[in-house]
Specification:
7-stranded antiparallel beta sheet
Length: 1887
Amino acid sequence: MARLADYFVLVAFGPHPRGSGEGQGQILQRFPEKDWEDNPFPQGIELFCQPSGWQLCPERNPPTFFVAVLTDINSERHYCACLTFWEPAEPTQEAVCSEDAAGREEEAVEGGSGRLSPGTSGPPGQLFAPKTLVLVSRLDHVENSLGLIYTIHVEGLNVGLETVVGNLLTCIIPLAGGSQRTISLGAGDRQVIQTPLTDSLPISRCSVALLFRQLGITNVLSLFCAALTEHKVLFLSRSYQRLSDACRGLLALLFPLRYSFTYVPILPAQLLEVLSTPTPFIIGVNAAFQAETQELLDVIVADLDGGTVTVPECVQIPPLPEPLQSQTHSVLSMVLDPELELADLAFPPPTTSSSSLKMQDKELRAVFLRLFAQLLQGYRWCLHMVRIHPEPVIRFHKAAFLGQRGLVEDDFLMKVLEGMAFAGFVSERGVPYRPTDLFDELVAHEVARMRADESHPQRVLRHVKELAEQLYKNENPYPAVAMHKVQRPGEASHLRRAPRPFPRLDEGMVQWIVDQATAKMQGAPPAVKAERRTTVPSGPPMTAILERSSGLHGNSARRLEVVRNCISYVFEGKMLEAKKLLPAVLRALKGRAARGCLAQELHLHVQQNRAVLDDQQFEFVVRMMNCCLQDCTSLDEHGIAASLLPLVTAFCRKLSPGVTQFAYSCVQEHVVWSTPQFWEAMFYGDVQTHIRALYLEPAEDRDPSQGWEEPAEEERSALDVASEQRRLWPTLSREKQQELVQKEESTVFSQAIHYANRMSYLLLPLDSSKSRLLRERAGLGDLESASNSLVTSSMAGSVAESYDTESGFEDAETCDVAGAVVRFINRFVDKVCTESGVTSDHLKGLHVMVPDIVQMHIETLEAVYRESKRLPPIQKPKLLRPHLLPGEECVLDGLRVYLLPDGREEGAGGSGGGPAVLPAEGAVFLTTYRVIFTGMPTDPLVGEQVVVRSFPVAALTKEKRISVLTPVEQITQDGLHLRSCTFQLLKMAFDEEVGSEKAELFRKQLHKLRYPLDIRSTFAFTLGAGHTPSRPPRAAKDKGPSLRTLSRNLVKNAKRTMGRPHITRKKYNPPSYEHRGQPPEDQEDEISVSEELEPGTLTPTSALKPSDRMTMSSLVERACCRDYQRLGLGTLSSSLSRAKSEPFRISSVNRMYAICRSYPGLLIVPQSVQDNALQRVSRCYRQNRFPVVCWRSGRSRAVLLRSGGLHGKGVVGLFKAQNAPSPGQSQADSSSLEQEKYLQAVVSSMPRYADTSGRNTLSGFSSAHMGGHVPSPRARVTTLSNPMAASASRRTAPRGKWGSVRASGRSGGLGGDVGSRLAGRDMLGPPQANGAPPDPGFLRPHRAALYIIGDKAQLKGVRPDPLQQWELVPIEVFEARQVKTSFKKLLKACVPGCQALESGPTSFLRSLEDSEWLTQIHKLLQVSVLVVELLDSGSSVLVSLEDGWDITTQVVSLVQLLSDPFYRTLEGFRLLVEKEWLSFGHRFSHRGAHTLAGQSSGFTPVFLQFLDCVHQVHLQFPMEFEFSPFYLKFLGYHHVSRRFRTFLLDSDYERIEQGLLYEEKGERKGPQVCRSVWEYVDRLSKRTPVFYNYMYAPEDTEVLRPYSNVSNLKVWDFYTEETLAQGPPYDWELAQVSPEPPEEERPDGGAPQSRRRVVWPCYDSRPRVQPDAISRLLEELQRLETELGRPPERWKDSWDRVKAAQRLEGRPDGRGTPSSLLVSSVPHHRRSLGVYLQEGPVGSTLSLSLDSDQSSGSTTSGSRQAARRSTSTLYSQFQTAESENRSYEGTLYKKGAFMKPWKARWFVLDKTKHQLRYYDHRTDTECKGVIDLAEVEAVVPGTPTMGAPKTVDEKAFFDVKTTRRVYNFCAQDVLSAQQWVDQIQSCLSDA
């Protein structure tokens, strides 16, 4: 029962104490004057009566009413009903507010007095003051009473107000129960008050429906989620009543949760600072104060008047979990807008009447009630009953609830469960014996119905309406109530002059009425509220909200069977069987069901809480437990750790008598053990089990340790037991009650001791003498110093031993470990015991006990640790040492790691087949040159295959720390993810023995080697430096200065003369450079220096210094000059004497690199241009890279020029000028004029220009082209857009050839649209298929002499002018940063870091397309083919893009490669790279980020992109290139590897500065490490044909025109192939060493073994395992020569002789073409289809046939006959060897290759042939193998290895180290060994 009203208050306007313009509320009277004992008077009520502030009004406003809500200190809500009316202000009030009022009056007068109502009584200046009647009640329905009091006052009814107020304060009504009470306040009124049926259900009236109408479904759902997840919500409206209703409606939606934070539906203006509180709130504020709310950054603002909800950016509201979000939304729309479903019907049914607003309100609430029932379904199964008596203590197992609902990742539910509202829900509704309401029934009995109705909207709607009926009935239990009778004031009564102000009531009379009623109440018996308490139903067990398929790890019955079988094998001792199943079990344990199955099976093998295992069984069990636990989160939501916790203290092994090691010491390294929430949930679960057992009959009692099993249905749950006990509690005697309380308390206490022990087991490391900080443990607080140890996979000792070698820690740290564990356990004990009601005495006893428990456990562990060290160590695989290059040194020795599979499926045995060689176990080595992994696969079924993956340190592009699972122990370890630009990826997990310090050291050393401070610190320099001391110092020679001096002088002179042109005066004749295949007419063009001086440039220092002279000689010898000489370009002259015969000359103006540092020293310029003009020309171009000639066509004599892009005021500005420049120009203008003259000089230097067209001829112009008076003509921009005119003058047949059609012939969107794509204009006719340009006749008949290919951005706004000799071709090119971005994506596509979500090639192709790499290749080839066409048609081309060193270099190199067959030879390609890339200053160091300074710029593979383009051309024209595809891969690998110095610096200038450019010119003695990649290629080419293309059969005048469509391009296999057997095959010495040597013996006495072997994809190098027929025959040839005792002939000589023999044999044969080896007479359109290597029927014969037009039968037979003849001719040349020369011989034991035994052999030392041969025995004539002494590096004493002869002295062992491998020998005694060593040494010294 409760009073209808607690207080009646009259509040009026009063003066402000500080005299401000505004007034304040003043309580005139309050009744009763004394506070009620149970309900004190709320303070500050006057603020809430006028929330916007107390102010006088110039007119009488109508009365207002609203209900404010105040919350007291006990969280009780008081409803303040406020009725405000206005009365004329008294003079005192007006005087106080005179200033304010005067201001208002002035406003009123100015605005006209019409503002006052016509009926307003009083003079025009009259002000009105507000007065408020306030009723304070705990009930939310008192508005009628206030209206009655106001009516009595206004209408002047003959009723005493004191009587009404007294009756109001003494009226008692029930709070709930559905009663109906009719009351009268003594004024002839009749009020019917209905109480709700259940007070737990909120009263909402129409507030929820109004809220949805104002804001809409989406906004209300957002507010609902925001309130539940404890965000701040602010309502804005101009109506106070709407604010109240909105807040009430939102709270009603939250049922059954109660909002427990700040709740102020109407906030007064004076309290607006409350909005800055850090706690969540729901507050309503008048919209007039909206400006004050703008600064709130974390408040969600709902504008009720505007219908908007504003969520700040920093606030993230988690949505409801799907599918509940979408289901709720759809049901709400059905309730609010039932017409929506029928809107599209052709014949809609007659409209049914929609629900009333009150009923719609209940329907909306019913939707949210269903939502909560679905969200919290089964919550009672996760309640832990910790105490039953004297009061229930209940805890909620949040992790288990989330896990079983499948919502662990759901942010919304996680936040709701962690919120205060849910904590209140558990404490209120978790009680097992209490009154129940609608929600309890719904969540217990209706869940199955809701799940069944999900897909039937009408059934859902029916259920919603049923629930709405119940909610409506709760609020209105008696629908047909008698009519209220409450008087109301008349219409506009507030405008009539009131007879008097509201009277002052008689306090005595009111108090007398109250006292009378109180006395009467005391005499009456107390009303007892009859509560119907009952056992709360639990409902069905919970299910997942959304049945998610567990995907890859879904546990089928077969997987569970495998787990069971493996465990049974372990306990039956069948270890071999268990080992076979273990990998499958570890994979299965990724699934939850398998983990549960494992725990269940292990429980079966525990008897009496103990299970003693042997070492192997222990190892298996621990490993499977670790595998289970490593997937557990810290919450352990699936209860796996909980079910394993009893097991880790049960399984053990005997280390020695009295010393037992338990499994817990090996499974400590899991985050779950250091999570307090896990221990609390486990503790409460066990306490519940024991409390339940207290009250159960003994027959029902069960073993509490088996808590993991689901309780059977017939068994009573703990909640049922608790409910029964709570029902019986009042009937028990006091002694019995006390006894039960003590029993429960002691149960909790004993469990606390038990858990203190358990926690110490799992938190104290095995080796407590050391603080093993493996990983900081979350949740351990100050336990950082004592990270838990981890001893995995059996023998704890092996781990312990490896740690013994580390530096020791001080003893004090032991205390730190113990202290940290004690503090952690104490915090846990404090929390759980306080919550569980353990007495303070018991708690103190626990605090005393805990340190003793920990200390005792430490002492136990010391013995275990000591004994575990004596166990035999785990047999870890022996570390395989990698083979190193000469000069390569180990920086960090092997760190044990696991190499894990990355996104490429080949290594892991994917769709390509082959075994899973990854993951592999081994070590990572860091050398001065490479990062190397060597190891073996972890899968025992794969076999002992060596896995090698390496890449140069310089190629590292990304290094990232990762945390991964080790494949064997299945625990989380730190790892590294290293990706290189050579397309290698090392994804490694460090072994547990590698500490974090070592891993960090590895990263630092790697970073230091990757980004050295200076280029001289790179491997290419340190390698050479390492070998320098071994050479004797050379005496200084008198011939001239040393090369280092030359470099210094050159740089010094360059710096001194920077910006001044140099004049060459002395004549110099260099040695002529003869080149293979050079045209005879070019040989007479000697490079000479003329003595003639330019007029006006004489300087006093006219003598050439010796250093300058040597500079000139060196410059002339460079690659550029050799190529210029071959092309017949230019003379080294500064005069015009030979201008007529030679249009170009070699200028030495840049010999000191004064004009352009990135250009070579000698440049080709027009003969007519003076050196001093070049300086001015260079200013117009970026980086001073002015146009120079780099190639000339031998046929059309057109030249190719290159330069940097134009500066803004270059030739473009000149083209825009309207008038000729006047003589007095600025320097910039004169530069532009020089530039124009320079271009005209280029044009006039072309011999064929005069007859290209009649209109554009320059005849007569060249004589006057230097005159300043010639007007400046304007260039035109080429359009080449007239296909009809072009077709009329087409040439008959195109020269050159197109690539073969290897893909679809459709021209895609990127097809040869050179006009629209390159220039943005219609430059060309329709393209051919495959992206080839149109027929070469597409150019206009009037071709320009010079086309300038420039960047479209530079050439904007240029107007075409048909009178000029050159034309601009603006094209769109990509920038270097785009290349870098594209390459990053390509790298991720080809070498992904993890498995793609979708299997198959689709994801790779999509990633490849996203990278746009092939699109860039397409553009490059397209531009290059365009330039080739222009050059071939007789026009010269200037490529002027970007800075002239990236895309320009790519384009001019490709153009020369396509146009000139010489560059397609090995020598020519080297020359091309040296000239265009090295001499012309491509920035290799900058683009490769080779030093610390370039680290930020990143790797930009411009040169690699060029090589990819060459590869694409090579694919289309395989017979036009002398070099093989491997050569391109080799250069692609080594241009970033920093093994050679060739690609290290950015220009010739830098190479001279470093003393590199000419250092190779000096004399050399003895073998030396190759510093130049070209030198290495030359050496290697002499030994092996790896760089040679057997199909090379060029056509001398061939111009190649490749197809460039993306559909015709192929992904270069350099990006995708991998050889895990040896690592990358580009360091040839290493690739030779790795495989097993071929000379290993056959089994004794058996037939020769089969030569067949399995070739594994991704593991073996196919070209090495299966060499092509020609390579195999050449190897066979060399082997035969060696056996015959002849010096082996070089492979190239043999090959040339074979080709010559084939040609001779082909001539008499009538069908010469098919049988000849490689000929040039095949039609060119079929030549690119290739050569086929066939195997004949007998032996291995060579047959190379071209796919010609003749029949295949004749081709095959002819080629086989020819091949047979040729091979027989070859073999008949050799005669048998003479008697062998045996200098020294005897028996030695020899160790076989890897994993092979020692065997005795007969060895022969042959000093003549410089060989060490060996045979099976002395009389054997067949040599089993040969060691070439030329490859021997050293002979050193050896050591015995496994399998060596036992009886031999250790000193009888010696090793012979060769460049290929190390041979281990053992003589029969020490003397014999010494003799062999001496003989071999003498043989080596004789050589």
